[in-house]
Amino acid sequence: MIQEVLHFFGRAICHQLEERSLHASGETLSVCARDTGIYIGIFSTLAYLHLFKRKKKITIPSIKMSFFLLLFMVPMAVDGLGSYAHLFESTNLRRLVSGTSFGFVLPYFLYPLLSAKALENESEPVIGDLKDFFVPVVLCYGLGGLVYWGKISYFVLDGLIILTVIVWFSMCWSFLFSRIQDIRFKSALSAFCGIAFLSVLSLLHSLIIP
């Protein structure tokens, strides 16, 4: 039952080709190796920012740092385009690493914007020192290594990935409800819309690709 639910939400964002997916405890993960990397990266940076930055006035990274972060997105773009264009054959390890590099960057630009304080003049860039960059990097690649070598059980890993997917899409929906002042209601509404949106995508995927 739990596995079916996890695969249902994984289908919303992923083709779920078994040969392009990693395994844990003998089971195929609900998303491919590249998406596994992306959401491990997102989880790592989100967890760090929420633990250490949620009470501070922060905004998106500086222009110089933003360009530096965008470089980490290049490997996945090259690997993905080259693979789909049949220029070369990718591997699950390469998909995992490039996906992780892409994913850990995204929260630096989205998370600060969840707060209205991001627009205040006294708000500081979300990356203030080396720790704000290196801790998420070490965490995401450390998790990636544990995933690749099968050191995390299926339900823990797949549950973490799908939970991160739901949280990420809920965060994206929350921007549509920025005028709502009640934080609890706003969070509940965003979560409902995120889950509903993913459910629709999954059902559409099932209809298009049985």
TrEMBL record:
One Pfam family matching this protein: DUF2085
Domain of life: Bacteria
TM region(s), chain numbering: 36-53, 65-87, 132-149, 155-176, 188-209
Keyword Membrane recorded: yes
Keywords: Membrane, Transmembrane, Transmembrane helix
InterPro entries assigned to the protein according to its UniProt record, in alphabetical order: DUF2085_TM
Protein name stated in the entry: DUF2085 domain-containing protein
Keyword Transmembrane helix (UniProt): yes
